[in-house]
Amino acid sequence: MDIPCIPEDYKLRREAILKINEIFENSKATLVCDRDLMSIDAIDLSLKARETILVVAMVCDWNLRAWTFLEAVRGRRNIFILCKNNTIVSLRETADIVYREGHIDIALLLLTTPHLLPVRFGKEFKMVGSSIASGFMGLETGGSLLSHREASRPGDDIVIWSLLLDDKVYKSAKKFWKSKVGQSIFTSFLLSSAPRLKMRGFRWAPSSPTAQLLADRSKGSSYRLLAYDGYDSSAGLITKDGFRASWLMYDFTGSLIGSDFFSSRFKIEMEPVEPTC
């Protein structure tokens, strides 16, 4: 539970945040208290009740908030769900039973929430980096998983992002990215509607992992361009002067099929750059 662990007093809150990874990682259990989950009657713990718990756990507010996402990642060894009438249910046991006996489509959906599934760290991960072996994740993975999860307070998103990578806490996006100089990141990760820093050499860098809403005037609606980890794209290097990477470019020619559509749709005149494409 995060409420008893994170006090409102600024100094005490800062001290608690510095230890939040340690608190949840070393806790005997992580108890999830969510209004939707607490409305589920799980006294008999039938297969249907377990399936309901899993489905609700994947879409409830607890799973869509940034802070609770961090807590789930760090405490996923032993997560328990508080249901109706103070019934406590093991998420690990429930996932295992549904996987073996329940609907396969529900079990498959669990693959979209790996942060809720228990994993082994340490000795089993001798061949990977020390940070991953300790249960942390890469910058792009953390940023993409926070892309649609908002934090409760301004600046908390960067704090949470940094805590997903290691135990070093950054409250400023500028300091966060300056600490990454000399490291590489995948270029496709940057293709999102996340806001950017307004600082020379770092205008490409997200000032928050959370994707902003973009207005679609033609449809009168809004949408988000969510980030993804970009692991299938080329990597670029973060330098103090900017982000250096190789970028692919494609020239549209007037002889392409559908070029008339593009010309009328975007009110532009397309001329062939070369005789052939």
Report on the architecture of this protein.
This protein is α+β, with helices and mostly antiparallel strands and 277 residues long. The chain contains 12 helices and 8 strands. It has a 3-stranded mixed β-sheet. The chain has a 3-stranded antiparallel β-sheet with strand order 4-7-8, with no helix packed on it. A two-stranded antiparallel sheet has the order 5-6. The longest helix is centred in the N-terminal third of the chain and has 13 residues, at 47-59. The protein is globular and about 60 Å long. The protein starts with 9 loop residues before the first helix and ends in an 11-residue tail after the last helix.
Q: What is the compact description of this entry?
A:
The chain has 277 residues and is an alpha+beta fold. The chain is built from twelve helices and eight strands. α3 (47-59) packs across α6 and α5 runs parallel beside α10.
